[in-house]
Amino acid sequence: MKWQGKLNEHPSQRGAVKAEIESFDSDPSNLFVSTSVGIVTERESSFSITPVILLFCVALFNTIEEVFYMQGIRFKVAVEGTIFAALAIVLSLVPTNIGPSITVSLGTIPLTLFALRRGTKAAIFSGFLWGILHFLIGNAYILSFVQGFIEYFIAFAFIGFAGLFSNKLQSAIKNGKQKDLYLIVCLSAFTGTFARFFWHFWAGYVYWGSYAPEGMGAFLYSFLTNGASGLMTAIVASIVLVLLIKSSKRLFVP
Questions:
Q1: Keywords of this protein's UniProt record, alphabetized (predicted)?
Q2: What is the CATH number of domain 28-252?
Q3: What is the per-residue pLDDT across 186-242, written as a single tens digit (0 to 9) for each?
């Protein structure tokens, strides 16, 4: 069938790929690369898959704990991070295209909120899970192993650096510094978003440059598309998070 997908979370060149892709069945093994077009096929997905995703991620946690760096994070925090990652992937299904090549990544909102609640290490774990979930629902677009690893493991994990402002936010909440809260939330959203989109920009330059319009270099193409998407995502996330902390500071307190 003709590809008409919503590239809501495809990081590097939303709207630029025009290809004929296969329609996969429900077998989870059919999530990966369609070599004839160089991208992963997007299967039919719905909000009903969320409980399955959540249960899978909770079960997956113990394995990830042994392989990666989670020994310093309590199980309760990790489960909370899994829930926020599941919420992020659900929001990723909401169409947010602005023109042919720019999207707003709504999943950034819950991930930044979690980062401000729990800090950098926990948020990196949650962002890493968010990247994994793209594979589970068939919403990953891959040209090569390295490109896929960069855009879905490294990039999504890097949104966790929004948690660098967690201690400052908790202190501002405790001391009742209302104006500082808004600034900290915005700095956190911009830091996490641009930490993530830096990797999408790099991957876009190296791997997706051939999709640039005629006469436009790969560097400029990736910078404009990912820069615009990152900027719009950071602005929207900042606005929503400011409204949330204004209405309920308890959401940001662990």
A1: Membrane, Transmembrane, Transmembrane helix
A2: 1.10.1760.20
A3: 999 999 999 999 999 999 999 988 888 888 999 999 999 999 999 999 999 999 999
Q: Which residues pair with 102 in a beta bridge?
A: 98
- Helix-strand-coil split of the chain, %, nearest 5: 65, 5, 30
Is pLDDT above 80 for 27? no
DSSP SS3 for 42? coil
83's CB contacts (< 8 A; 6+ apart) are: 54
Residues with Cβ within 8 Å of 152's Cβ and at least 6 positions away in sequence, in order, are 131, 132, 134, 135, 140
Query: What is the maximal distance between C-alpha atoms in the chain?
Result: 58
- For the chain, the domains span 28-252
Length of the chain: 254
pLDDT of residue 154: 94
Burial of 213 (0-12, 13-18, 19+ CB in 10 A): exposed
pTM of this prediction? 0.72
Q: How far apart (Å, rounded) are the C-alpha atoms in residues 62 and 151? A: 24
Please list, residue by residue across 15-49, b when 16 or more beta carbons sit within 10 angstroms of its beta carbon and e when fewer do: bbbeeebeebeeeeeebebbeebbbbbbbebeeeb
